[in-house]
Design a protein that fits this description.
By secondary structure, the protein is of the alpha/beta class. The chain has helices at 19-22, 29-51, 140-149, 162-171, 194-210, 233-240, and strands at 2-7, 56-61, 80-83, 85-88, 91-93, 102-108, 128-133, 136-137, 155-160, 176-179, 181-185, 188-191, 224-230, 246-249, 252-257. It binds zinc ion.
């Protein structure tokens, strides 16, 4: 049983500020603290996977600012294999294919425009106002479930703030979700005890893998329409240049995905969706 884990930082145990996830200086104490929380939450998840009988755990440092340098490698459980991009245009993740039994997300945040979602956003924080798939607002966990579904792989476990957990359970009732904190505002939260949270992550990811037969991959029929709205027209203009992209309004564009895996790829001169017939 191979488990593929995507990590983020905003929804980690112990994380309560923007700077712990995004400090510009690599050696900023807040950011180093954030990287330690990332590594410790990841270790709890990795341990739970092996408790449940995993033969291999593949782990992606999915927080953009980290540029794949987020894990503290001297502390990260060496049983996990680190993965990264297989290609960029279009985005394909390394090691996520038919060989994988289940996907888990650690440290996830809620989608953009979520009340009491701690640091909620969808891909570009403070820049994207709305992101819809076939008309329904979706966040990064929906995007990942859609991508994995192409290979028949279900999302089975998530840790994050209460709002991210509610989002996951609402979309996929089989998902086991462990809350790490309760959002009180955009950058305000009540943290839960980190030791207790990590014990729960380890136990619950193992339970999720034990119940794998009741999990279902997300496989909506293509084409899937993406509709993205930015906070300013300038951001939409670049995407609107690509063939196959429809300009809905000054700040809003839409396009269709033939291959759901293209959900992580923004139209550009390097990759563009097929125009609608
Ligand atoms: Zn992030």
């Amino acid at each position: 049983m191979i488990v593929w884990i995507c990590t983020d930082m905003e929804g980690l145990a112990g994380i309560s500020t923007w700077n712990q996830c995004y400090a510009a200086e690599d050696d900023h104490p807040d950011y180093l603290y954030g990287r330690r929380q990332l590594t410790e939450d990841a270790n709890a998840a990795i341990a739970g996977c092996f408790d449940a009988g995993a033969t291999e755990v593949r782990i992606l440092d999915g927080h953009g600012r980290n540029q794949n340098r987020g894990f503290m490698l001297d502390l990260l459980d060496p049983r996990a294999a680190r993965v990264w991009f297989r290609s960029l245009d279009p985005v394909r993740w390394e090691g996520l294919d038919e060989s994988v039994a289940a996907v888990a997300m650690i440290g996830q945040h809620a989608r953009v425009n979520t009340i009491r979602g701690f640091l909620d956003h969808t891909q570009a924080a403070k820049v994207i106002c709305s992101y819809r798939l076939n008309g329904a607002e979706q966040g990064e966990l929906g995007q990942m479930a859609l991508y994995a579904g192409v290979y028949g792989v279900p999302l089975v476990f998530l840790s994050g703030d209460e709002a991210a957990c509610a989002e996951a359970r609402g979309l996929f009732p089989h998902v086991r979700a462990v809350p790490t904190k309760r959002g009180l505002g955009w950058e305000a939260c009540e943290l839960y005890d980190t030791t207790a949270v990590r014990a729960s992550i380890r136990a619950e990811i193992a339970r999720a893998l034990g119940a794998l037969s009741s999990a279902r991959p997300w496989t909506p029929n293509p084409p899937i329409t993406v509709r993205a709205e930015w906070s300013w027209a300038g951001a939409a203009e670049g995407v609107a240049q690509a063939p196959g992209v429809r300009r809905i309004s000054a700040r809003t564009v839409a396009w269709d995905l033939e291959d759901p895996r293209d959900v992580f790829t923004w139209p550009s001169s390097r990759w563009s969706p097929k125009p609608r017939e």
